[in-house]
Amino acid sequence: QVQLVESGGGSVQTGGSLRLSCAASGFTFRGACMGWFRQGPGKEREGVASIDFYGSPKYGDSVKGRFAIAKDNAKNTLYLQMNSLKAEDTGMYYCAADQFCTWQYWGQGTQVTVSS
């Protein structure tokens, strides 16, 4: 059974940092494509960052230079380091995964709130 469990969300002031984690089980983590998505209040879900089988990252335009995605194959854990947070980064952050970056599997999400 595939499980993706996010953690690390919380409330932070503008300019602050958070690190999200996604603990994965039930599939071959090393061979998986994994990503972070978010949905802000009144907004559609958007892709934040992804990392493929080869470890190549991609970022949404709004987070480039501020966020970093990393995949620890030894711990079966995906991370998202978020720096210089802005109010518009507020939302529910979801971890997603599958073999082909088509996002078959999803976690329950962790809330991030950025306030001034």
| Major sheet characteristics | 7 strands, mixed
The Rg value, from CA coordinates, equals 13 Å
Structural class: mainly beta
Q: What's the count of strands?
A: 11
- Describe the oligomeric state of these chains in a short phrase: single chain
Helix tally?
0
Terminal Cα separation, in Å? 41 Å
Low-confidence stretches: none
Q: What is the string of helix and strand elements?
A: EEEEEEEEEEE
Mean pLDDT: 96
Q: Helix amount, in percent?
A: under 10%
Strand residue percentage? over 45%
What would the principal axes of the Cα set say about the shape? globular
Could you please describe the fold and organization of this structure?
The model has no long low-confidence stretch (mean pLDDT 96). By secondary structure, the protein is mostly beta strands. Strands 2, 4, 5, 6, 9, 10 and 11 form a seven-stranded mixed β-sheet that branches. Strands 1-3-8-7 form a four-stranded antiparallel β-sheet, with no helix packed on it. The radius of gyration is 13 Å and the shape is globular. The chain has strands at 3-7, 10-13, 18-25, 33-39, 46-51, 57-59, 67-72, 77-82, 91-98, 105-106, 110-115. A hairpin with a 4-residue loop joins strand 7 and strand 8 (77-82).
Q: Which descriptors would you attach to this protein?
A:
116 residues, mainly beta, seven-stranded mixed β-sheet, four-stranded antiparallel β-sheet, 11 strands, 0% helix, globular
